[in-house]
Amino acid sequence: YLRIIQFMEPTAAAVEKALRELEAQKVSGLVIDLRGNPGGLLNSAVDICSFFLPQDQVIVSVEGRNKTADYQEKTRRGYKFPRKCPVILLINGGSASAAEITAGCLRDLNRAVLLGEKTFGKGSVQTVHELPGGYALKLTVAKYYTPGRRVIHGEGIQPDITVEISREDYFRISRAAEGDKVKEDPQLSRAVEVLQSYDIYEQIRSGKVKVRKETEQEEGKAL
């Protein structure tokens, strides 16, 4: 379990350190909690997405009326978290901006499953022009698009698995002791359940767990 509360300058380095530690523990599944994350720096989101995707993969496109100013952010070199480890991102109405870019990117590229509630819907690029008399004019000049060409602004990102909780319950859960979070948090509990099911499936698929066929069980009863 890894919670990211904001995308700031040191966030990517802290996330990489945490991911390396989890990898050393040979975790079989990862939950990244982006609930209540208001966003922050685009570069931070790009760095974090890069940990989970191959190099030169498009993470987000920035497009506006001035097409000459359009550009794309792509994944970067460096550390990569094991592809075989499934990832679930927890999202809610408080997940915005860079958090939505991260969620939309990893979901569109089939690297993560989204669980929780629809995100806030903040995905625009704005500039501020100073005016006389201490006033200012804020203009939206471009919008962010996910790799699957989804517009974030005004739309938000929908979860794959919807688990709703009230705002009051969310704040109550956020104050719970670490050892009680899975039991008290329906969204986190559901994420763990999904990952455990996936882990069992993978063990069966790889032959690590032997499952008797129903016909074999019936033959045993007949004997």
Beta content: 15-25%
> Mean of the pLDDT scores?
90
Residue windows where pLDDT falls under 50 for at least 5 positions: 214-220
| SSE sequence, one letter per element | EHEHEEEHEEEEHHHH
Strand order of the largest sheet: 1-2-5-6-9
Biggest sheet: strands, sense, closure? Answer: 5 strands, parallel
Provide the structure class.
Answer: alpha/beta
Task: Describe the secondary-structure layout.
Blueprint: E1 2-3, H1 11-24, E2 30-33, H2 42-50, E3 58-64, E4 71-74, E5 87-91, H3 98-108, E6 113-116, E7 124-131, E8 135-145, E9 161-162, H4 167-174, H5 181-184, H6 186-205, H7 214-222
Parallel strand pairs: 1-2, 2-5, 5-6, 6-9
Antiparallel strand pairs: 3-4, 3-8, 7-8
Helix pairs in contact: 1-2, 2-3
Describe the structure.
The chain has about 220 residues and is α/β, with parallel strands linked by helices. It has seven helices and nine strands; from the N terminus they run E-H-E-H-E-E-E-H-E-E-E-E-H-H-H-H. The chain has helices at about 10-25, 40-50, 100-110, 165-175, 180-185, 185-205, 215-220, and strands spanning about 1-5, 30-35, 60-65, 70-75, 85-90, 115, 125-130, 135-145, 160. The strands form two sheets. It has a five-stranded parallel β-sheet, sandwiched between helices. A four-stranded antiparallel β-sheet has the order 4-3-8-7. Helix 3 links the parallel strand 5 (about 85-90) and strand 6. It is globular.
